[in-house]
Amino acid sequence: MAHGTAQAVLQMAWAQLELGLHEESEQSYRGAIDLFQQVRASQGDTLDVLRELRGAHVFLGVALSKQAKWRDAEVIARESARLARQVIENPSHVTFDKLVLGNALMNLSQSLLANGLADEARSALEESVRIQREVMVTFPDKNPAAAELSLALGGLAGHVAKTDRAAALDLANEALQLRRSQIEATSNPRDEAMYFARVSLQVASLYSDLKRPDDALRVLEEALRHAEPASLKYPAYRGLRITHVYCLSQMQSIELGRKNQPEADQLQRELEVQLRRILEVLPGDVEARSRLGAILVAESRRLAALRDYDAAWDRAMEGMNLFRDLHVEAEPALTWVRQLQNSVIRVLATPPRFEREKEKLQVARDFVRLVPNDATACNSLAWHLLLARDPAVLNPAEGLKMAQRAVELDSATPFFLNTLGLGYLLNGDLDAAQAAFEKSLELKTRVPAADWYYLAIIHWRKGDEATARAQFDKAAESRLAKSPLDEELLDIERTARRELGLPLEPMEASDRTGTPDEMGTPTDVDCRADPMDSNTEEHISMAPHDPGNTVQQP
Predict the structure, then answer these.
(1) Any idea where the domains of the chain sit in the sequence?
(2) Burial, 284: exposed, middle or buried (Cβ in 10 Å; 0-12, 13-18, 19+)?
(3) Residues 6+ apart with CB under 8 A from 550
(4) Residues 6 or more apart from 348 whose CB is under 8 A from it?
(5) Are 271 and 245 in contact (CB under 8 A)?
(6) Rounded distance, CA 343 to CA 337, Å?
(7) 280, 233, 219, 270: which is closest to 248 by C-alpha?
(8) Which of 130, 145, 357, 375 is the most buried (most CB within 10 A)?
């Protein structure tokens, strides 16, 4: 290739590389690499061409990593590291070329780790740390070297933490000290505050693992002193604002672990303020909306536990509105939507259970729309359709379909089978209802009384009065032994007593007076486990159905 032709090809290669940098275009990076290879084939491995090829490979590798194309990213990262080594073998290389090699090795470690090659990833990071330390000694401007070494040390600390947290803490603290030295001298306070906070999070996490919460809080408080003013100055810079939120969140977790509830509550209020500020600037931010939803979950559940059901409902609905128009197929939104669902289900199930039935039905439908393949969402909708007292909401046929869908998605959870049995019972299919309740019992539901009460009704309708009475007696004995004041089980028992023609003789929880302490163990949400937990002792699908007040008996 003639010199003029080579220059023309180089110009084209630089143009492609510039386009790739502007658009983060994989195709443009690959085009630039092909053109640089043509120049290399005609001119040999000159230092300039090797540097250009190295840079194009580094940029392509980063672009592939952002797309999670880890196999391709690994191939490109290996080549960029190889080219970077070839550059520093040239007698004319400069110290900056070593810095680039250290960076290429960090990129390689990321793709190796993503592809399950943890040992090789750690080796790449160890080599990167060694090279960056050498650069720190000789590089006249220490700032770039300090930043790169800090990143490498942080990555290596993550690997070392799997076997030796104390050694990992030493590495992470060294990384933090390098970032600390950069804070005052930096020309980019926005990025430096963010990276300082990120390393601080790692150090604080290791302190927490080593049972040193005071040190963890100290590090996080220092991070906040830098992150908070920067996040206020650059409100649209998402990375910094979210990192700020992470620091607050980790501090809250530490205070909760120390059982320091007032401090934890104050941090939660600060978290809510920060998240709302992010959403003012970035209203579509999935993570901010998700984390705010999680705070509303916690507040709703706390209020429900205090029996402030109206306030609990309002907070739960505010959380729900964060997700109504949100695409939630990917994390982290899906995780938070499930937690929000958990909280809202609890509020839907608490007294007064039969108020706002139309609103509650719409919320249940919204959850099925948001997470259509979630068994709990389908079960919750089925429950509302089967147990509503409002004739405009009650729909046993649709309720049965949703209960069938829940069991199709998860056939191993007893309370889904309980809802399915109730659906069959209300639709007049006694055999299918009996099979569902018996299957629930086989799976060792934690509240067998609910299934036995319904089985008593089924056997009574089939004409087997002796079995019906035996099932009822087992249910009543279990309720008295395990949950004597549980309102849901009392309602189911009342339904069974009416069906079997028995007197309504037991003391009813709704007739009791006095505070929960005077009454004994509180009922409903106070003593519930999470309804999404398969080990829960009670679940909303066990709520009462009174045929006399809702629909005609089949």
Answers:
(1) 351-510+520-554
(2) exposed
(3) 387, 388, 389, 394
(4) 360, 363, 364, 380, 384, 540
(5) yes
(6) 10
(7) 270
(8) 145
pLDDT in tens, 231-249: 888 887 888 888 899 999 8
Token look-up 């079997």 returns 500
Identity of the highest mean pLDDT range in 81-85, 217-221, 305-309, 397-401:
397-401
Pick 554 or 316 by higher pLDDT. 316
Model confidence over 176-228: pLDDT tens digits? 888 888 776 666 778 888 888 999 998 999 999 889 999 999 999 999 888 88
pLDDT, one tens digit per residue, over 141-159 is 556 778 888 888 888 888 8
What whole-number distance in Å separates Cα of residue 263 and Cα of residue 269?
A: 10
Say which amino acid occupies 367.
Answer: F
Q: Taking the CA atoms of the chain, what radius of gyration do you get in angstroms?
A: 31
pLDDT digits (tens, 9 = 90+) for 369-425: 878 888 988 998 998 899 888 899 999 999 999 999 999 999 999 999 999 999 999
- In this prediction, residue 17 has a pLDDT band, given cuts at 50, 70 and 90, of low
Q: Tell me how far apart the alpha carbons of residues 97 and 144 are, in angstroms, rounded to a whole number.
A: 12
Could you give the CA distance from residue 272 to residue 387 in angstroms, rounded to a whole number? 36
Both tokens assigned to 250: 């980790």
How far apart are the C-alpha atoms of 509 and 401, rounded to whole Å? 33
Among 44-53, 387-396, 477-486, 509-518, where is mean pLDDT lowest? 509-518
Helix 375-387 with 333-349: angle, nearest 10 deg: 20
Q: Give me the amino acid identity at 398.
A: E
Report CA-CA distances (Å) from 222 to 153, 192, 201, 218, 272.
20, 13, 11, 6, 20
Nearest partner of 74 among 122, 114, 26, 34, judged by Cα:
114
Q: Cβ distance 66 to 25 under 8 Å?
A: no
In terms of Cα–Cα distance, which of 382, 359, 351 is closest to 490?
351
CB 94 within 8 A of CB 123: no
Q: Which fold has domain 351-510+520-554?
A: 1.25.40
- Residue identified by tokens 């931010």 is 285
Report in angstroms the alpha-carbon separations of 178 from 40, 127, 144, 244. 39, 18, 11, 20
Cα(32)–Cα(29) distance, integer angstroms: 5
d(CA 334, CA 201): 24
Query: How many other C-beta atoms lie within 10 A of the C-beta of residue 480?
Result: 13
Q: Among 72-81, 195-204, 499-508, name the one with the lowest average pLDDT.
A: 499-508
Name the DSSP class of 92.
Answer: T
Residue whose tokens read 């800090």: 150
